[in-house]
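Lab notebook: predicted structure, single chain.

Context: the supervisor wants predicted structures on file for every construct in the current expression panel, including those that have not yet been purified. This is the next one on the list. No modifications to the sequence; it matches the entry in the shared construct table.
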Amino acid sequence: IGLSLSAPTTFRLRRRKPGGFERRNVELPPRALYLLSGEVRREWEHSIAPMDVTRRSITFRTIAAQ
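Prediction complete. Output recorded below exactly as produced.
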């Protein structure tokens, strides 16, 4: 679970496919709450696009024991 604060941002997702990456962008407004679960959490990498303004976020994660 994540809470994006302060400024709008672009949340980027990508997953490996033969010959490259499949990509998606999600625009997050200030105070956006998001949940990564299922396929998106297991198969996609995520990042925040570089920004020129300060952005704050709070992230809650669980890590499975292996």
